[in-house]
Every structure is written in structure tokens, then in C-alpha cells.
Amino acid sequence: MKKHRYISYLIAVGLVLIGGSCSDDTLDEIDTNPNSPEEVSVNLLLPQVTVNVPTAVTGADLSWYSSVFVQHTAGVHAQLQEADRRSGLENNTLVNNMWNNIYAGVLPDLNIIIERGSPGGEEEGNLVHVGIAKVLKAYTMSVATDVWGRVPYSQAGQGVENRTPTYDSQQQIYTEIQNLLDEAIVDLASGAPSPGGQDLIYSGNVNNWTRTAYSLKARFHNRLSNIDPAGSAQAALAAAAQGFQNASQNLTFTRYTAAAIGEHPWYQESNDRSHHAVSQSFVTTLQSLNDPRLEALVAPAPDPDPSTEDEDPAIVGAPNGTQTNDQANESFSDPTPAVLNATAPMPIMTYDELLFIQAEAHLRLGNTGEALTAYQNGIREAMRRQINAPDPAIDAYIAANATTVSLENIIRQKWIAFWLFQSIEAYNDWRRTGLPAFISQHQISPPPLRFPYAQNELDTNEGNVPDIRGTQIFSVPVWWAGGPE
């Protein structure tokens, strides 16, 4: 909806400016196929996609549901509380909005930038725009295939020309994602004009976009650890070597505003719905590690009796699957305002994640020393990013908790680093590795292994939608987690 309002506003302004002197021919041209997105320039679309990808792909429903699945948060009201109790997750209307965000909103816009800016397109020569769009398309498609499995790719985003796209295998999509990133790296190195401020993530910094492409390649290679353990590790390390070199290059959106329509989506969810509380699992994990991040990230629960001053309010995590409704935020802890606020940054991929990927890849190859170094550096960078922890505190934490490296330790620290806004990646890690183990030991049942397909897709394209329905979402993994194609 925001996209259509924005484009309508731009068209309306243009009509006001030129309306007094338009000829009939000009008016006929303006009136021709007004909904055709091919008429929108890459300069108008780039700001839009660099907002919409972090907001509508990274930061909305898929992230909120994944958060309770991996026990970053617990659902304490309405749909998220039901999801935490494993009720209603087979409902195909659950993800209609997210499917539409990706397939009717984000991907068509990215495709238009790629088509118009590439050789032979109406705006050929804008190859930096194209490279950015390919990076964001690769990321967006990874989210889609990771949560659903087989999805449309080769025939996706064609609008009225193809309303019933076929579904590509996840293996093929992962190949195409890597190809997209390879193409993006070439496009970004073309020397084409920078989009500058039209790029609301890196302001047209080609070096940062190139390092993002390599970092994402490392993430996606590592995702195939169960498919090709050694090969995926070698490929991940090769890509990571050209990825982020420090935290200043993180793929993070930092342009949210305090205006109602520009706020961070998690902050909007908290204000409008308040379906989440911080999970007991997160609280107890950090308490067991004496982790200095706990009090900086998690606020005390409200004092049930403010008239008494016997003791300070305590941090109280909500047990996943709780029967307590806490929409009023009275019983359990929430994130601190320093974490969850209107203008909070939205991390999409970070340097600390890349270090944890390197640690895991080295571990698979038997390079224990390199794995330990990368693991400890990942913790160091995560603690700096999350709470700006001073080096002495980090050193003490590592000495107490991170002197040996194992897959379990790596994934646990990644899980902590992914809190609060990167729950989709934590969900991917759990499905890939079974870690953290407590997620599988849920008091009701483990989380689903994938999301259901959207009902509106079943209504219009049922012949192509894979036959994974109902409770099969709990029993049929996606391909890279050991499932069928």
C-alpha cells in the first residue's frame, strides 16, 4: 500500500506541474496504462526498494513468527500467542501479506530496475542501480525459498503476463541466487554513475554493496552445510574473504523516523499489537553465561505493586507457550527502549554473523585454531554492535565462556547475536543444525519446519503449488535441511 500511495503522489505532483500546458497527445500518453510499473524510473524505484526490503521482507510477519519459533520472544497475545501454542499455523491465510509483499511488491520493483538499467533497457547504463537491485533480489529470494521451499523464481514477477508461474526447486533457486550475486559484483564494478542518496542503505557506496554481495554468498554457501559439508565450507570461506572487513560495512537499514509511517516495523508491532514478550529461554541463557548484554537488552518487568519498595523490579522472561495473556505488558519483560524504538537500526547481515560463518566453516574443515579465533571475534563484534561493550568486559566474557569452539557454541552465540531483529536467520540455523537444542524440546511441540503456502496463491495457482499442506509443515523439511525437492 505504501508503494502505491508513493507512486500515486509522484504522479499527482507531476500532473499538477504540467497540467496547465498539456496537449491532448500528452494527456493521452499520461493516460495510457497508468498502472504499468515499466514507466517508473530506476531513480524513483531505488529509494523505494531500499526501504521496502528491510521493512517488508526482513521486518514483518515472517520475522515475528520466526521469533517465537526460535524462542527469542514468546507470544503473549492473539495470533502470536496461538502460534507459540502451535495453534493455527496450518492456516494458509497466515502468510498472505508476506507472500504479496514479496511477489506483488518487492520482486516486481527489483525486476524493473534490473530490466530498465541493463544493456538494452530504457535506462541502460545504470549498472550500479542494477547491481544493488540484484543483491536485494538475491536476498529477497533467499528469504522466500528458505521459509517456503519451492517457490516461483524463473517465471515470477511477470504480472498479468503470467498469473500462474511454475515453482522452481530450492536447489535451482540457490544456484540462481549465487549467479545473481556474481552478476551484481560485475555490475557494481562497471564504473556506472552512483545512485548517491537514492540508495537509502549505503548512499551509493559501491564497495559496501560489493562486500555485502560476497558476505551474502558466504551465508548462502554455508546454508548448504548438510548438502555438501566440505564444499560449502570452502566456498563460504572464499566468499567471506572478500566480504565485510569491519562492522562499518554491515548491511543495516538506519533510516527509520519517528513519524508514524516511518517507524521501525517491530516498534510499530509493539505499539499497535504488543503480541511479544522477551522469552524465558533468552533470559535464562544469558543469565547462565553471566552475559552483560542481558540488562542492556531486556527491561525489568513492571513492578506489580509499585507502592512497595522491598525489591527492585526483576527481568522476567515469558515461557514459550504461556497461557498468560500479557498484551498490557504487566507480567513479562520487553526489550529495552535502547533496542526497540522508532528509529532502531534494522540489521540484515552483519560482520559478526560473517565471523560466525567463518568459524563454522573452519570447524567443518577441521581447522580448529582458525575456528576458535573466528568464533571469539564473532562474539567480540556482536557484543560491540549490540551494547557497545568495552573491551575488558568482552575479554572477561570470552575467557569465561568461549575458550573452546563447537558447533553448539557457535550457533548459541549466533542465536544471541541475532536477537531481536534477525529471527529468520536464527530459524534457518535451527532447522539446519537442530541448535539451540532447547527449541526442539518445546513443552508443546517443536516449531514447524517451514511456513504454509499463501491461501491467495492456492486460490489462483493451485496447480503449481507443491502438495505440502496442513500438518506437513511440521514434518517435511526444506531441501537444504534434508527434505525432498
UniProtKB/TrEMBL annotation:
Residues 320-334 have a biased composition (Polar residues). InterPro entries: SusD-like_2 (IPR041662), TPR-like_helical_dom_sf (IPR011990). Residues 299-334 are annotated as: Disordered. PROSITE patterns: PROKAR_LIPOPROTEIN. This is SusD-like starch-binding protein associating with outer membrane.
